[in-house]
Amino acid sequence: MLSMLMAFAVVGGGLAGMTATQSAGALPTAGYWLVSADGGTFAFGAPFLGNPISSGPDICSAPVTVGSQVCRAIAASPGGDGYWVMASETFEGGTSGMVSGFGAIPLTPTPPPLSGLNGPLVGAATTSNGSGLLLAASDGGVFAYGTASFFGSAAGEQGAAPIVGISTSSVVNGYWLAAADGKVQPFGAAIFFEDMSTTHLNAPIVGIAATSDGRGYWLTAADGGVFAFGDASFAGSMAGHHLNAPIVGIAGTADNGGYWLVAADGGVFAFGDAPFLGSMAGHHLNAPVVGLAASEPAA
After folding, report:
1. pLDDT tens, 53-94?
2. Are the C-beta atoms of residues 52 and 58 closer than 8 Å to each other?
């Protein structure tokens, strides 16, 4: 049960966005955002800054249909006062992708739409100053914008499992890619801290989150399993527990003392010192939740 006042923004006849403790323009606090496949964005303990449905541009199809361009990830800017929503589409002529920013987004202009991709976009991450953006595609392709540097990709690797996420850290000039089979690949100054590629998994990996000091990372699987490497601490998981919908993402706290998992039905599970501030579980959603991003106050 939520122990806080919640305000809902209803757009186009469906629940498109919400904020659990703040309204647009409020000062950022530690919290998190969820994004659904149709662009609905839901804020808990963080400011609601808009979404592709209510604020435009409408980069995600609503309703979601086969072959439509759907939102696939959300990435927060430093300071908790902005976020990017990323969408991608696979159609008969190929695959495309694009992003839209909301709130305080230092990166200008907005990265142009991508076309001719060999796989849909599946992950996004921002650089420490917020003026750089990294996108990852399922074939391992990486696309860098603004101050983000390109250090290589996993594109072209024959027989490789699809990439499911990308992560970076405020102190590492590089990034990690995670694949569905648990393989983690570091690029640039990012360090490899082992992975799950040689271990049996009960469900595919669906997300990666690096610790804020860049000395570790967490992986999460669709069944709620969490795997911690480097200085990332294991604080629990949902493996072995009943889930109403598969896990689709993970985000860590700024002090590396905890993390959140999010499920496709909007359920949020908090571990360690990560506070539970609410979720969309039990609420009607026009499309499944596809990603989670943590908001942290500016230092």
Report:
1. 877 667 787 666 666 789 999 999 887 889 999 999 877 677
2. yes
Q: Which domains does the chain have, with CATH numbers?
A: 7-295 (2.120.10.30)
Predicted confidence band at 2 (pLDDT cuts at 50, 70, 90)? very low
Q: For 43-61, what is each residue's pLDDT tens digit? A: 999 999 999 887 766 778 7
Tokens standing for residue 147: 């101050």
